[in-house]
Amino acid sequence: MAEPNYMLNIVGVFGFPVAENPTGVMQNAAFQALGLNWLYLNFEVRAERLGDAVLGMRAMNNFRGVNLTIPHKVAVLQYLDEIAPSAQVIGAVNTVRREGDRLIGEHTDGKGFMRALGDDADIDAAGTHAVVLGAGGAARAIAVELALAGARRITIVNRSRERGEALVRLLTEKTPAQAEFVPWQGAYCVPQGADLLINATSIGLFPNVEDAPDIDYDSIFPGLIVCDVIPNPPNTLFLRRAAERGAATLDGLGMLVYQGAIAFKMWTGQEPSVEVMRRALAAEFGG
Ligand code: NDP
């Protein structure tokens, strides 16, 4: 008979606020589906206690990894032993994995986006021209992964000039991609040579489901791949309007599930069922 083992492996998310973060729903569903004795928990950690929280995690051998959300994604860098290459370029970490006593920082958001692009749309980013709406954390992660995967040209369209130009500077200095900033003034017209159009702003997120980015929807054409980072609702007004123009679409729920699946694999070494994860989250979002 197997030895009894009452020790669960713990992963979770450090954030503040963190009560509404639904990541545990998909991770716990995936643990259960594989019969793993792992548990994902939300930990409310204030900005000034992050160092203590990481120390506590280090002290507990069965605390196997953690996600970071607001306000910890940049602050956590100082407490880690190693930062993965793309997370170094992005300058932020959303996932920590453990190798023995070493804590390694990763960023899975852009990787989740890339996997959705490859697995669900069969797109290779190499040589493409991507137009990214937004220049915040999600835009940064996506633009860096696209650039590192060989995107030829990246256009950053953003409302605030400062953030947009900072992202273009980062891409230009740290990746081989050609990057340019376009100030977002009035309806943005998508350039006809573009391959990808990505909404990486928070426009359209529940409960503001009637909002859509201010673009000239007539400039969307069949052949363009239109992607949204908004996971809830998955079928945003932005994607619906793009689909009406004949474009292929990728939703933010897929990206969210894939970035979680990548973290799951980093923590457990096993491949989770993305179907189980997607179903669990979609049910949570009322889909
Ligand atoms: P940030 O606050 O870092 O950035 C928000 C971006 O949206 C900025 O570029 C901001 O522009 C822009 N923006 C917001 N409102 C408007 C508006 N009314 N008009 C024009 N631009 C606007 O947020 P994050 O990047 O962290 O998150 C953005 C979204 O991505 C969130 O909704 C989040 O849920 C989603 N997300 C999804 C993930 C997934 O896996 N599907 C993963 C991570 C995030 P400005 O600089 O001018 O303020």
Word description of this protein:
The chain is α/β, with parallel strands linked by helices and 287 residues long. The protein is built from nine helices and twelve strands. The protein has a six-stranded mixed beta sheet with strand order 2-1-3-5-6-4, sandwiched between helices. Strand 5 (95-99) and strand 6 (102-106) form a beta hairpin. The longest helix is centred in the last third of the chain and has 17 residues, at 252-268. Residues 109, 112, 134-139, 158-160, 163, 184, 201-203, 205, 229-231, 252, 255-256, 259 line the site of NADPH dihydro-nicotinamide-adenine-dinucleotide phosphate.
Elements, N to C (H/E): EHEHEEHEEHEHEHEEEHEHH
Taken from the alpha-carbon principal axes, the silhouette is globular
Distance between the termini: 43 Å
Radius of gyration: 19 Å
Order of strands across the biggest sheet? 2-1-3-5-6-4
Largest sheet at a glance? 6 strands, mixed
Q: How many helices does DSSP assign?
A: 9
**Structural class of the secondary structure composition?**
alpha/beta
Unreliable residue stretches: none
* Distinct ligands: NADPH dihydro-nicotinamide-adenine-dinucleotide phosphate
**Strand element count:** 12
Instruction: Indicate the proportion of strand residues.
Output: 15-25%
Average pLDDT, all residues: 97
Percentage of residues assigned to helices: 25-40%
List keywords for this structure.
about 35% helix; about 290 residues; alpha/beta; binds NADPH dihydro-nicotinamide-adenine-dinucleotide phosphate; six-stranded parallel sheet
